[in-house]
Amino acid sequence: PAADHINVILSEKIINGDLILYNAAGNIVMSKTISSVYENNTITLSTKNLPAGTYFMRLSTVTGQESRSVV
Fold this sequence. Notes:
This protein has no helices and six strands. It is mainly beta and 71 residues long. The strands form two sheets. A four-stranded antiparallel sheet has the order 3-2-5-6, with no helix packed on it. A two-stranded antiparallel sheet has the order 1-4. Strand 2 and strand 3 (28-37) form a beta hairpin. The radius of gyration is 12 Å and the shape is globular. It starts with a strand and ends with a strand.
C-alpha cells in the first residue's frame, strides 16, 4: 500500500502525456500533464491527501494508453 507517494516507473521516455488517478467510483482524484520524463523514467505522485482505498491510474500518450490499479 502507498503511504505518502507512489512512483510510476516508465519503460520509455514520455513526451506529452496525461497521467490520471481515479477512485473506485470512477471520479478523477488527481491528474498530471507530462511534458517530458527523462530522469530514470520515474514520476512521483503524492498520496498524502488521499484516503486509503483502491485507485486506478491511466497514462495516455500519443502512442496509446495503459491502466493499472494502485492500492
